[in-house]
Design a protein that fits this description.
456 residues; L,D-transpeptidase catalytic domain-like; four-stranded antiparallel sheet; LD-transpeptidase; transferase activity; transferase
């Protein structure tokens, strides 16, 4: 996908979908600046080509809107109301129409604040092999999902939910584009069945999230049915990829040049801050940083006012978590309320063969947001040539990220991570590691005294 600014609003709106497709080419020059509906690609861009008759199949979602599919069943575009897409014009007043969204018919811009995208015509949709490369920033076997990994399942036993692993058919999403897989990940994220980082790639974290969603809702989701996923997204919060304007605060930081590996050098930093605008924005929108850059080629993220494409994640889950299950084999954490209902599930990194996580049942002892980290080689692990106690300042790139949920077993806890793309794929020093956003969500739901069970 390429991202560009329009130089003509008429060109940007040439695909407004109010007359039959066969009439589109002849009618393009007659369009007024705004009509009622627009066609938007799965990436959140206005289409900049006209689908030809016979090149797409037109379906309708549950809200009656038209969905354009290619002949393989992949979503090409969704028809949405124009007023939900276009930016608020500078001449709009509070209380304008559409429930606080400005009346798009009063728009006075020249199109420079509207982004459009070029995507291949439906007859030549490009595909990215799902197993072509490891996740960004990872190498070796631990960086990739093995093709033999299976879809995990959840089951209820004796009226008390327990998580088990049962061999099932591997999740098949062959032929699906990255944008379609990102849409699936976004839906699962909004529903509380976290897939970890949203990166448009299939893998074990997606499979685990699908299994958790089935347990939470009693409904089996077909991950290959992109039309159904788009329909569900329209109800749960809208398009999976939306426009975002970089603010002066985004560009200002504060940021640090880099995060050293050595704990002694970490302790000398003023804070374990983000290292770039892209790292900060990727985490805010639950994305893999490399995927954020791929969605926005050529964009200078340090310039305020730049319009970029980002994932639109769900609102933070709410509720009261009274019981947590950390499944070591499945590399997943499950959060239950006092009725035994599963209300959230997260991919996790849990211990290693050298520094295993504890077994049995423990309790939440305390909860800290934006914690500092005390390194003590006599109590924890030995890192490099550091022999003494070190105080590492707080920040999202700290050893425990931006959350620490301490357990009753000393030195162990559930925490965030500075490397969200590795969650569920590498080992920890015995603790339970989640993405920063998942750890924050869990920390705001769990209370001191909640039980934490480790199962093998």
């Amino acid at each position: 996908m390429t991202l560009s600014r329009t130089t003509s609003l008429g060109l940007a709106l040439a695909v407004l979908f109010q007359v039959p497709l066969a009439e589109r080419a002849a009618a393009q020059s007659t369009y007024r600046p705004f009509t009622e509906m627009v066609l938007v690609s799965p990436e959140g861009d206005l289409l900049d080509y006209t689908p030809e008759r016979g090149s797409v199949v037109i379906s309708r979602d549950r809200m009656g809107r038209r969905v354009l599919l290619d002949h393989s069943g992949n979503v090409v575009a969704l028809e949405i109301p124009a007023e939900t897409y276009f930016p608020r014009p500078s001449n709009a007043r509070p209380g304008d129409a559409y429930g606080g969204v400005p009346d798009y018919r009063t728009y006075r811009g020249n199109g420079d604040d509207i982004a459009t995208g070029t995507i291949p015509a439906p007859t030549r949709v490009e595909r990215t092999p799902l197993d072509a490369q490891p996740l960004p920033g990872q190498q070796g076997e631990a960086a990739q999902d093995e093709p033999t990994e299976t879809l995990a399942s959840l089951e209820t036993e004796n009226a008390r939910p327990e998580v088990t692993v049962r061999p099932q058919t591997p999740l098949a999403l062959n032929g699906k584009s990255r944008s379609e897989i990102a849409a699936l990940q976004t839906f699962l994220d909004r529903e509380g069945a976290s897939p970890g980082v949203i990166d448009g790639r299939n893998g074990s974290n997606v499979a685990k999230a699908l299994a958790a969603y089935e347990t939470m809702t009693g409904e089996r989701l077909d991950p290959a049915n992109s039309e159904d996923i788009m329909q569900r997204l329209s109800v749960s919060g809208g398009l999976p990829i939306v426009n975002y304007t970089i603010t002066p605060e985004d560009a200002a930081g504060p940021y640090v040049a880099s995060i050293p590996e050595d704990y002694g050098l970490k302790a000398q930093l003023p804070a374990m801050s983000y290292t770039s605008v892209t790292e900060a924005l990727a985490e805010r929108f639950h994305m893999d940083e490399a995927y954020l850059k791929e969605l926005n080629p050529g964009v200078d993220f340090t310039i305020p006012g730049s319009i970029i494409k980002v994932i639109s994640p769900g609102e933070r889950k709410t509720g009261t978590v009274t019981r947590i299950v950390a499944d070591k084999a499945q590399k997943q954490v499950f959060a239950y309320d006092d009725t035994g209902a599963l209300i959230a599930a997260y991919p996790a990194t849990i211990g290693s063969s050298d520094t295993p996580s504890p077994s049995g049942t423990h309790t939440v002892d305390r909860i800290a947001l934006d914690p500092g980290y005390t390194y003590n080689p006599k109590i924890n692990f030995k890192q490099g040539e550091n022999h003494g106690i070190l105080q590492i300042p707080p920040g999202p790139n700290g050893p425990v990220g931006n959350v620490w949920i301490a357990l009753s077993k000393p030195t162990y806890g559930i925490h965030g991570t500075p490397e969200p793309s590795k969650i569920g794929k590498t080992n920890s020093h015995g603790c339970v590691r989640l993405t920063n956003w998942d750890a924050t969500e869990l920390a705001k739901m769990v209370k001191v005294g909640a039980t934490v069970e480790f199962i093998d």
